[in-house]
Amino acid sequence: MNTTELLPGQSVDEKLFRLLVSSVTDYAIFLIDINGYILSWNEGAERIHGYYGDDIIGQHISVFYRPHDHERKLLSYSLKQALKNGMHETEGWRVRKNGSVFWTNDTLTTLYNDQGNLIGFANVSRDITERKLAEEKKAQLNAELEKRVKDNTQKIIANEIRFRKLIENSYEGISLFDGELNIIYRSPSCERINGWTHLEELPRKALDLVHPEDAPLMESQFKKILQNPLEPIIVNCRNRHKQGHYIWVECIFNNMLHDINVQAIVCNFRDVTEQHNAQLERERITSDLVQRNKDLEQYAYIISHNLRAPVANIAGLSGLLHDMPASNDDQANVLDMLTHAVKNLDNVILNLNQILQASSEANDQIEEVSLSELVKTIQLSINSLIQKSKATIEFEFSEIDRLLTLKSYLHSIVQNLITNSIKYKRPYIRPVISIRSAVTDNTIVIYFKDNGKGIDLAKHGHHLFGLYKRFDHTVEGKGMGLFMVKMQVERLGGSISVVSELNKGTEFTIKFPLCLMAI
Fold it and tell me: How far apart are CA 312 and CA 300, in angstroms?
């Protein structure tokens, strides 16, 4: 059907109107009869729905609706609403000729003839898919935003509850002070520490709870706190308990007066009375042990000194007896044994004095010691031994050279290990001694390695550092060197271990705490 032809009984004005409608491209405008069959079709309908007029005129309007809409009887409902109200506007998804869908705004208007009889409906449709998609995207964004706001609100509430619970059940007490050091807040956990509930009235000033002897210290510290925002300051003092006695507390102050979210001096504190009393007890026990050790050393000195005189007399008398002519061979043998026993006793007393002397040096002053300079000094002192054995001493202390320690102890340790390596060298092989330092796992490590005879650790390892323990009787010795080394290393807070293989050499590893490192 040509929608622009003049129909029978149609006026020129009607034809012009039809021409005007047919030329509209933004709206789909078409007529349907009372049964829903399409009677006319304009250019806008062709552009929006994808049908040419000859293809669609005469077909039922239901071709534009999805199966789901048919099940809902959406078209029937729209036509009934138009009949009831004269016009019905609706929006929904419609189907194009190619099967694609679009969102449209439809207006159905009833048409009547001059006699008042219903002759059909006028349908005006507009493609508003872009607006629909934009609205859906906006709605989705709003929904996501609302969800985020809801989630964040829940997180904030949960965090606030968690934070409140942490504060209320914290092991530490938390107090807030203003710039005048008035108490403006106390956490509920304070009650467990000092007996005061966070709801009770107590002295407003922080200093009113401090022990009078600690008040001057606290006043000076508070000045420091006010002058140093955001710098944590730790103070130990005695604080008055609600029951009237004083407890020791460790306080960490942080000046956050300038933080708009806090505007207070924050104090985290905990009861350290037990630790403080335990420290006092440790100091008392340590002092007592030191005094007892001094008394024992003094006693040992007295014993060794008093023994020396009678031993010397016995040695002299045995010498006189030895010079006298013996009446028989048995007497001579007894005198020889007596002389030998006296000599051994004298050596024991001399060794005891040597050990006591080394032990007493622990009271020497701690000083900075250079390992490289120490080795050079030892090389000079034992130069004749080095020359005689043609020994080579190599050392490398680039990683750490300077220690804060007892120089006499460290000198004794290094010299003993060097002389041992030279003494127990392999025949016809020049001794090579390598000494180096390192820092590993927060520990200072010194390695002594040689190419000497080595030690059978499986046989002798369990008493290697014992007093008077000797494993090679081809060389003269007392068996005191390694005993002294171990004793002095441990007095310096260190430890010593050994790895050795027969006829290949020995390596001693000495470890000291990192606090001995000189800065």
Answer: 18
CA distance 150 to 156: 10
Q: pLDDT tens-digit profile of 331-387?
A: 566 566 666 556 655 555 555 555 555 555 545 567 899 999 999 999 998 998 999
Answer whether 493's CB lies under 8 Å from 443's CB: no
Q: At 244, is the secondary structure helix, strand, or coil?
A: coil
Contact indicator for 20, 29 with CB cutoff of 8 Å: no
Beta bridge partners of 252: 234, 268
Nearest of 239, 210, 207, 238 to residue 223 by alpha carbon: 207
Q: Give the chain's radius of gyration (CA, Å).
A: 53
Task: Say if residues 232 and 252 touch (Cβ distance below 8 Å).
Answer: yes
Sheet containing 28-32, strands listed edge to edge, beginning at the edge strand earlier in sequence? 28-32, 118-127, 101-112, 87-95
Question: For 184-328, where are the alpha helices, taking DSSP H only?
Answer: 190-194, 215-227, 273-323
HEC sequence for 291-307: HHHHHHHHHHHHHHHHH
In a 10 Å sphere around its CB, with 0-12 CB exposed, 13-18 middle and 19+ buried, how is residue 494 labelled?
buried
pTM, whole model, 2 decimals? 0.38
Tokens of 109: 């208007």
Residues 6+ apart with CB under 8 A from 325: none
